[in-house]
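Table S2 (continued). Query chain:
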Amino acid sequence: MDLPKLQNKLVDEILKVNRNVILVNLSGTPVTLPWIDDVPALLHGWFNGMESGNAIADVLYGDANPSGKLSLSWPRRCEDNPSFLNFKSDNGKVVYGEDVFVGYRYYDKLQTAPLFPFGYGLSYSSFGFQNLEVKVDGKNVNCTLEITNIGNVAGSEVAQLYVSPPSTTTIVSRPIKEFKGCSKVYIKPHETITTTISVPIKYACSYFDVEKGKWSIEQGEYSVFVGNSSDLGNALSEHFIIEEPEVWSGL
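Corresponding output:
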């Protein structure tokens, strides 16, 4: 994960001269950022092709309000990756030892925070979530909430839905929570909008039962969280109940 050659040293030397730095990182995967606490602003540009420079300039000069979210968790160091102990072959055999605990599921299970959580991303706006309402209509879990742009710049926010299985689950080891859907909305300054995230019950609640060879839905109380990343510190929460267990196959 380390940046090649002397790039980290270059950043350190620049910070010695002037700490008022905006650092733009271009990489397709997470890299180690040992100086992150000393940099006032970081913009991650991924690999955006030949117009990347113009797009980045628009963001830096405020002509465009960034609204991207991380599609993966960003570990602090290589050793923090879920696959670190298994990322090699033993006599030609590769073991996927992390099982279902990949990405944010791994950090949740270990109660360890990555550098940046899955779904994280800032913008020139600030947003508030309120009034979450969860309804189950027989086929879908419908989560409705209000989002307010409490900043002075128009921008987009992504409301992210996570579902936790019943606390009584003992059949298999399951993630603490699972990402199930999202809604991206554009909001003007000081405006409040209402948005709904709908997910079929079978996708919101199921896990694959290897013994049965089918998908299984357990009965019990499921918890719902809606926030702006997999870090649910300020997330809204509700719950719904599945009265009867169910198994199903196919898609």
